[in-house]
Specification:
By secondary structure, this protein is mainly α. 60% of the residues lie in helices and 7% in strands. A two-stranded antiparallel ribbon has the order 1-2. It comes from Sulfidibacter corallicola.
Length: 114
């Protein structure tokens, strides 16, 4: 399966809007998780598999290939690391992670009140 590409149909967008292509890529099983774990620093395949806990070697291999093709990660002397583009994307995801924690707390509070 080819990586989601802006300008080509992707999940949720026949036109392949760039944001939808990015969401399609990151929404694949472990896509965002790998990016998140590599933000901790470069690591080998085995280290990354340990950081991701439940990922299978097959899925890890597939996602690494896709994320390399998308120019978000690259091979290095220590295994794999974020590219400048990948690090920039991670920086944009951090506030989303913060928002997600706030959202989760609001949902819990609403459930506790019910």
């Amino acid at each position: 399966m080819a990586i989601p590409t802006p300008g080509r149909p992707v999940r949720g967008s026949r036109s392949g809007a760039p944001i939808m292509a990015l969401f399609d890529l990151l929404g694949r099983r472990w896509g965002m998780g790998i990016l998140w774990r590599l933000s901790e620093g470069p690591c080998t395949f085995r280290e990354l598999q340990t950081r991701c806990e439940t990922i299978s070697p097959t899925i890890l291999n597939r996602r690494l290939k896709e994320l390399r093709e998308a120019l978000l990660i690259e091979r290095c002397a220590d295994g794999y690391k974020l590219t400048d583009l990948g690090a920039e994307l991670y920086g944009l995801l951090v506030p989303l992670g913060s928002y997600a924690r706030t959202w989760a707390a609001c949902l819990r509070a609403e459930t506790d009140e019910a």
